[in-house]
Amino acid sequence: MKHRWAAIVLVLWLAATAAYAQDDSGFTVDTYEFAQRYTLQLVNRERGLAGVGRVSLDPVASQVAKQHAEDMLAGGYFSHWNRQGLKPTRRYNLAGGYNTLGENVYYEHGFDGDLEARLTKMVETLLDSPGHRRTILDPNYTHVGLGFALSADGRKLYASQEFIVRIGGEYSCPLRARHGAEVEFRGRFDRQLYELDKILVGYEDPPEPREVSWLMRTESYQDGGKIFAGYLLDPSIYMEGLESYYTVQVDPQTGRYSCRVRLNYKDRPGLYYIMVWLDEKATGEPILAATATIVTEN
Q: What is the pLDDT of residues 113-146, one digit of tens each?
């Protein structure tokens, strides 16, 4: 019986100390969860003052944000690209997410203050930047991923915010394909609220590993690169300057769609973007709802 109680005490001690163990982010479990909750509170307060809807914390986007913050800390760089040369949407796709994403990144060194003060300063600094402010207050965003990394001495704080538009789901698309192949991108949206507008396809050179010196020269980013094709429902519509195709199918009852896309920009292997645009019925506003990235190889 004595050994049994000793084992129970050991298990309870391990459970109690687990909450205070640091992970690769440099935070304890408790302080990391506080950082997420408090930052979400600050973001939603500002969105409320701007008259736009609240965002909810998204677990997949939060993991993507955490990995990027940790990679920036480990690599000693600050960028929307990571050391493998991947931008936010590609990183999110690889984690299983296809909803449209917009990223804010933040770095601070040597600020003397407790965690709450540092997080407050972070949000205030981002709001003072027009581009970052637009991302935080964009009314189309419904969810956000929040990730942080802290240096061992506590002096360096890195953070990543992955805002996403979740107005559809059940997305499915390959992430790699042979160059010139035809791939299918499927998903679903609410036909009571939205109509399918178009699906655009863009091309970029393939991602490649990057040195810190290159990463530190980067600034804002843009998805899609060279837009070269549009996929439409109505054959009477033509998109000037783009190749137009009509292989989109939409179920009028369920809102499920399917689009077959050929990855063939100038016979160049690379990174292809497939971007789904929906029209909001109430306002007529087009919203970029989902983006898939596909690397092609010969």
A: 899 999 999 999 999 999 999 999 999 999 999 9
Which pTM value belongs to this model? 0.90
Confidence (pLDDT) at 9: 32
Distance between CA atoms of 202 and 225, rounded to whole angstroms?
6
The count of C-alpha atoms lying within 13 angstroms of the C-alpha of 106, restricted to the half-sphere facing its C-beta, is 30
- How far apart CA 275 and CA 212 sit, in angstroms, is 30
Q: What mean pLDDT is predicted for residues 292-297?
A: 96
The two structure tokens encoding residue 168: 């559809």
- Per the CB < 8 A criterion, the answer to whether 119 and 39 are in contact is yes
DSSP, collapsed to helix, strand or coil, labels residue 116 as: helix
Please choose, from the candidates 269, 268, 262, the residue with its C-alpha nearest in 3D space to the C-alpha of residue 230. Answer: 262
Q: How confident is the model at residue 151 (pLDDT cuts 50, 70, 90)?
A: very high
The whole-angstrom separation of Cα 27 and Cα 154 is: 9
What number of other Cβ atoms are within 10 A of residue 25's Cβ? 20
Q: How far apart are CA 196 and CA 247, in angstroms?
A: 13
C-beta of residue 200 within 8 angstroms of C-beta of residue 227? yes
Q: Which residues pair with 199 in a beta bridge?
A: 231, 276
- The token pair at 153 is 């001495």
Q: Under a CB-based contact definition with an 8 Å cutoff, are residues 46 and 131 in contact?
A: no
Q: Are 242 and 224 in contact (CB under 8 A)?
A: no
Instruction: Give the pairing of strands 248-250 and 256-262.
Output: antiparallel
Considering only CA atoms, which of 157, 161, 164, 136 is closest in space to residue 70?
Answer: 157
Distance CA 166, CA 80 (A): 21
Residue among 134, 140, 97 nearest 277 (CA):
140
Residues in the chain: 298
- From residue 28, alpha-carbon distances to 32, 33, 143, 164, 212 in Å are 6, 9, 24, 26, 28
Listed residue (105, 65, 79) closest to 215, CA to CA: 79
